[in-house]
Here is the input.
Amino acid sequence: MDGTNNKTGWRQQHTHGLMSWVLFVFLLFICPLSQASILLLLSGENSYYRETAESLQKTTSTLGISPDNFEIVTIGEAQQANTLNKPYELIVAIGSSAARESLLQNSNTPLLNIFTPKNAFDAIELSTVHETNRKISAIYLDQPLSRLITLSCLLKPEARNFGTIFGPVSQSSQSEIEALTNENGIQLNHAFLAEDNNPVAVLKPIVSKSDLFIAIPDHAILNRAIAKWILYMGFQQKVPVIGFSKAYTNAGALASVFSSPEGIGKHAGELIFDWLENSNQAIWNPQYPRYYTLSTNPAVARSLGISLPSERELYEKFQEQELKQKAHGNDQ
Here is the structure.
């Protein structure tokens, strides 16, 4: 009797062991143990880089791509571990510094730059893309100029004279913004400001003859240097200012349009998913952010005698204008 039980027990153990081995081999084939296939390279420890990466991962996870497919490191961590020389399917550089580092250390892996100003990417592309066959693209940090014009027209539709200042970088946008204002029956008053110019002397005549002033991003140093003067003169002369960041609105602009880290991460996640799952090559067309945020300053609006629509109404009207522009082929 005991012999029979021993044989039965041995058979059960043998069968159980064989099934475990078969299951292990099966799982090995359907779930290969490999390193992450996408590198998210952060320019630094700043919270907005982390938020962008987290939004990207959250978006792709919702669409069906496991978070395990991503490795997140800063430039410093990547340099210490020689990360950029590992084989990845895609590198996502978050910020301009990460983009430059990716190009210095890796020459083959496709590269998507996000949270990078358009002028910074254009400089990278011009110096690199023609020298290699590497795929390089970007989601710009900047907004298309059409959004600044749309927001301006919605908040002060009676304005017929817009003012702006072009710096060393933004002067390349002159013809585009002139075309956009002309389409809306608006006169554009403008001047050029170099880093060694007196900002007050350049800004004062432009602000004084404008119904509304549009702040266009340029070099970060120049942006900081003239923002306080733009806002001060706008307040002094009752000229509303449209900015390009939440900070601009908080500091005294009537309103701003910008893209948050969450919005840029979401856009990147959708592009990556569509590329991996559907072989959609749209990811390799450099583009402006798909998602944006509108911020307004009610206190400034009251001081200027401007009646602000509700947040919901403003977004709805703004989206209507975006759709009209796309229908007419003006989407950038």
